[in-house]
Amino acid sequence: MSEEYTAVLDRFEDSTAVLLLEQDGEQVDELLLKRCLLPEQGRHQDAVFEVMVSDVEVSIRNRAEKSEGRKERSQSRFDQLSKESPSGDADEL
């Protein structure tokens, strides 16, 4: 039996990549892989992958278009929050 996940590259610990596995938008697990096993174009923080995990193997595919979309949404949220202050007046920052 195999499970399909969306995985986001969270960080590197030496030569190990730490991927956060998501299903239905919720983080459900972590996957540790050697950096060299990642697709070359996805060896950067916040890269998004499609991951299939079975009892005997893991397959991984880079999803560059999803990486860019997440980056844009995160930047938009940050920009929105930076314009607001706790009292609602941006001049008080």
From TrEMBL:
Q: Where is this region: Disordered?
A: 62-93
Basic and acidic residues compositional bias, start-end = 62-82
Q: Mind telling me which Pfam families this protein's record contains?
A: DUF3006
Q: Which domain of life is it from?
A: Archaea
Q: What protein does this entry describe?
A: DUF3006 domain-containing protein
